[in-house]
Amino acid sequence: xxxxxxxxxxxxxxxxxxxxxxxxxxxxxxxxxxxxxxxxxxxxxxxxxxxxxxxxxxxxxxxxxxxxxxxxxxxxxxxxxxxxxxxxxxxxxxxxxxxxxxxxxxxxxxxxxxxxxxxxxxxxxxxxxxxxxxxxxxxxxxxxxxxxxxxxxxxxxxxxxxxxxxxxxxxxxxxxxxxxxxxxxxxxxxxxxxxxxxxxxxxxxxxxxxxxxxxxxxxxxxxxxxxxxxx
Length: 231
Fold this sequence. Notes:
By secondary structure, this protein is α/β, with parallel strands linked by helices. The chain folds into 2 domains: 137 residues, Response regulator (Rossmann fold, 3-Layer(aba) Sandwich), CATH 3.40.50; 61 residues, Arc Repressor Mutant, subunit A. A 6-stranded parallel sheet has the order 2-1-3-4-5-6, sandwiched between helices. Helix 3 packs parallel to helix 4 and helix 7 crosses helix 9. It is elongated and about 60 Å long.
């Protein structure tokens, strides 16, 4: 991107009408060029790998791979491609999870064209841009002593070799299930969405051949992923 060229944007949203609407809206701006659209996080990762845009405009609630996990993966694989979240979701857990994942901007879908344009251009310059309400709530949480941005105590250290081809994140989910956490509680502790947790759980069941959470708890103790309580 150079000063006389528009910012190249990838629009990611599971709703076709939203993708097409944003493409039409942003197409009216001289400063922005929509170079592609994606219907979910998996498709977004593929397109960014094939042709990295300057900015990704990302929805959160999507099938296959949600926007929070897609943002997290992009922050690792393409750290120089900033993500601006544009979503209907604005609860604190989703906001903090998206920022924790690496989003450089957060807007709700009632934002106007000027606000979206400003967030995209700001992210392209390497700066952060937050919806005023989101910024206020973030500051309120920090004043209240929130641990946002500070790693919370996690599960016990993982063994050096994980069983059944589990990933480190899947092993964390197994530990938390063994500790009695629900999917919603696990999502809060790991700063991901409940849809992402369900995806991890499905992968765990497929890899281990287990059928339910009770079997998974027994598996966690048997493999050493969780420690049995001391008498």
